[in-house]
Amino acid sequence: xxxxxxxxxxxxxxxxxxxxxxxxxxxxxxxxxxxxxxxxxxxxxxxxxxxxxxxxxxxxxxxxxxxxxxxxxxxxxxxxxxxxxxxxxxxxxxxxxxxxxxxxxxxxxxxxxxxxxxxxxxxxxxxxxxxxxxxxxxxxxxxxxxxxxxxxxxxxxxxxxxxxxxxxxxxxxxxxxxxxxxxxxxxxxxxxxxxxxxxxxxxxxxxxxxxxxxxxxxxxxxxxxxxxxxxxxxxxxxxxxxxxxxxxxxxxxxxxxxxxxxxxxxxxxxxxxxxxxxxxxxxxxxxxxxxxxxxxxxxxxxxxxxxxxxxxxxxxxxxxxxxxxxxxxxxxxxxxxxxxxxxxxxxxxxxxxxxxxxxxxxxxxxxxxxxxxxxxxxxxxxxxxxxxxxxxxxxxxxxxxxxxxxxxxxxxxxxxxxxxxxxxxxxxxxxxxxxxxxxxxxxxxxxxxxxxxxxxxxxxxxxxxxxxxxxxxxxxxxxxxxxxxxxxxxxxxxxxxxxxxxxxxxxxxxxxxxxxxxxxxxxxxxxxxxxxxxxxxxxxxxxxxxxxxxxxxxxxxxxxxxxxxxxxxxxxxxxxxxxxxxxxxxxxxxxxxxxxxxxxxxxxxxxxxxxxxxxxxxxxxxxxxxxxxxxxxxxxxxxxxxxxxxxxxxxxxxxxxxxxxxxxxxxxxxxxxxxxxxxxxxxxxxxxxxxxxxxxxxxxxxxxxxxxxxxxxxxxxxxxxxxxxxxxxxxxxxxxxxxxxxxxxxxxxxxxxxxxxxxxxxxxxxxxxxxxxxxxxxxxxxxxxxxxxxxxxxxxxxxxxxxxxxxxxxxxx
Length: 813
Known about the structure:
Layout: H1 4-7, E1 16-20, E2 24-25, E3 35-40, E4 45-49, E5 58-62, E6 66-70, E7 75-79, E8 87-93, H2 94-101, E9 109-111, E10 117-126, E11 136-142, E12 146-149, E13 156-158, E14 162-167, E15 172-179, E16 184-192, H3 195-207, E17 220-231, E18 234-244, E19 248-253, E20 259-264, E21 269-273, E22 278-283, E23 286-292, H4 295-305, E24 311-323, E25 326-337, E26 341-346, E27 351-357, E28 362-366, E29 369-374, E30 377-383, H5 389-392, E31 395-396, E32 403-406, E33 411-416, E34 420-426, E35 429-435, E36 439-446, E37 454-461, E38 466-472, H6 473-489, H7 497-533, H8 537-577, H9 585-613, H10 622-632, H11 646-655, H12 680-739, H13 746-764, H14 775-802
Parallel strand pairs: 6-9, 28-31
Antiparallel strand pairs: 1-3, 2-8, 3-4, 4-5, 6-7, 7-8, 10-11, 10-16, 11-12, 12-13, 14-15, 15-16, 17-18, 17-23, 18-19, 19-20, 21-22, 22-23, 24-25, 24-30, 25-26, 26-27, 28-29, 29-30, 32-33, 32-38, 33-34, 34-35, 36-37, 37-38
Helix pairs in contact: 6-13, 7-8, 7-11, 7-12, 7-13, 7-14, 8-9, 8-11, 8-12, 9-12, 12-14
């Protein structure tokens, strides 16, 4: 209640709107008197002091500006201007101040602002909540399209997100869709203490178009980015508002506030990729790509919108081949996949190229190359990303189709006849015709990679051109055979049976040399690879010891198998060629000769093996060694159950840069003689010397093995090979006497040609499936070795001649 002394100073229609106690001070104020403080509706401030028992009653008046300072902890401070003798300091809660502010003349209140930033109190309502939050304070700035908050979590209130704006006596009420860092906000009340700013804000809100012109006020709204592709490598991201309501999906530009697209929800297919933060909307074969930028949108899509197994895969790979009547050449493609359909699209067009039913096609996956077969058309996608699980369920990794592809990943079907190979992609797309008559050489230049069915084949033609193709591995053998068989067969009537027999016997000779000596040369080559690739002497020694030991074990068994069973195999072959005529005697002689050479070879190998026994502590277990070889090589041998090529497989394993590392065992009892009084330093020194001595011992025996093997290969092999050539020649000469009457028959000539073609194919193929070295290279190596034997003979002859004086001429009269 205002006392009479103060009330007497009020003007007409003036009254108190705020009362308090001793929150003021002036000169000569009493210490114990009753004090009262008043602010009137005209913005004047009064202070009353009763004076106490001994003092006089005093009233002070303040007519200047009331300074307002908003405090961050929920209060407002009211103070006088600094030069006034009457001072006051009043603290009010935010809500009490707002009530007081609206009762005062605005020209009597001063609230300081910094530049274009105005102090503001505000409350807001979070989506799903019924009540407003408590008051908060921040500085706001009015922009052309939004209000920005300096430090609070509200951040920014875009005008186009306002659904309703209402100015009351106390505040401006905004309803719409806003967001802070953690939640969505549906209502904000702004308590602004600048009348001009209020007016400007309301004008902008009236002028600014709203997203709610396009969407229902109950729609689910999310911030996102609209993705467009100007060129293949140029991507444009536009900030948008993505809206979902019961009937439609709306995409609205946050920049221009224009409606980009509005799609009927029930007729729009939605594809989602959470890992790539992408959602795609497809309607009438047109697509909209949206980049997800908030976890809220992820959650909403997973919970309310997307269906299981409806996925999008942007830039999954490069499409080539004949694709539903169109030629494709390494075109970057994206996929929309559902349980029943695949939609192909390119980002530049934002349109579906083709939608297909997954059950109508064949999908064959070879590593990162996906073949797509629809009807009689074949295309492929060179995958840059992992194939989705939905499609993997429809994919096979085996096919009866004769498929292949070129170096540029153009896929094709393969059709062969007697004259040519035709590569086509559909009934009306012929990719290539390759005529056998133009072929000079067909060879495998790269083995299939792991989990691949395709072998790299290089074809050399008469005009010195090379073509690289990739075929199914099983088809390669047939292709090489046909490339030789059909062109040569045309001249078969003009070739005599005698010529055919000579050619056949030479092929058999090469086959025997390969089976008997080729493996040894492969082992020798592998040893050279170890020496060349491994620089660490200890690792190299251990690799050589293990390599030689396990190769010798396999070679000895292999020599026995070849010497015993190969002659019988050749005998059966001859009987087939010459229509059942059995001739055992020549092959029994061949068998005895091969067994004799086998025994001599085994004796040489035993000598090398004895050196291994001296350093047996360096050997790893057989099962470990076999597993290493198995992990590195794949074997597919028809002869001798895979034993014939073990040395080669080992060579491939060790020449690949892997070293066998085994910790050498300590020599038994070596340290027993060390006296207990030796210092630890002496013991360490002794250990180093022991290891050094052990290394010298290993090196000695490795060198001994190596020298023995060198002697066998360089000195003895030429002799063995020459002897084998002679006995094979004798065998087939003896055979010739028996079968010469039949050499002129058409059937025998045809049988001989069939075998010659088979042997040619055998020589063209790699040694095994781990390398591309052709068998003919090892065969050539055996032929070259024969020349060494003649060189040794010539060398001995020269040594004799150089020590014999020239003949002395005898003159007769």
